[in-house]
Specification:
It is a single chain. The chain is an all-alpha fold. Helix 1 packs antiparallel against helix 4 and helix 2 runs antiparallel to helix 3.
Length: about 120
């Protein structure tokens, strides 16, 4: 799950940075405000990449997805990109967990096969 989620978060980090550039030019918000919000979201994406297996990290990721959708209030294209990244986040979590379960199952089978049988 970690690899899929981290890939999604890195892509999101880049999109947030570009959205910050757009918001800086097209909105009435102060440049400092735009970069305080964008920078915080970008740092959160980066930190979540390393903490994705910790309790609560997936929920923080969902909060980040909601914030990304809501950033459409400032940069309208972010409504669309936020929904796209929310879908990617769901897929990363859903299929990442399935991959982790399969890996654990295969590891257990390999460990079982490597033990000498007692007959």
């Amino acid at each position: 799950m970690r690899t899929l989620c981290a890939s999604t978060l890195i892509g999101e980090l880049l999109v947030i940075g570009f959205a910050g550039l757009v918001a800086m030019r097209t909105s009435d918000l102060a440049t400092g405000t735009v970069w305080a919000v964008s920078g915080t979201a970008m740092v959160l994406c980066l930190l979540l990449c390393g903490m994705i297996n910790r309790p609560g990290a997936v929920q923080v990721g969902w909060a980040l997805q909601i914030a990304l959708i809501l950033s459409g209030l400032v940069v309208p294209m972010m409504y669309f990109l936020g929904v796209v990244f929310a879908g990617l986040w769901w897929a990363s979590v859903h299929f990442g967990r399935k991959v982790d379960e399969a890996r654990a199952r295969f590891a257990a089978q390999a460990a079982e096969a490597s033990q000498p049988s007692q007959a």
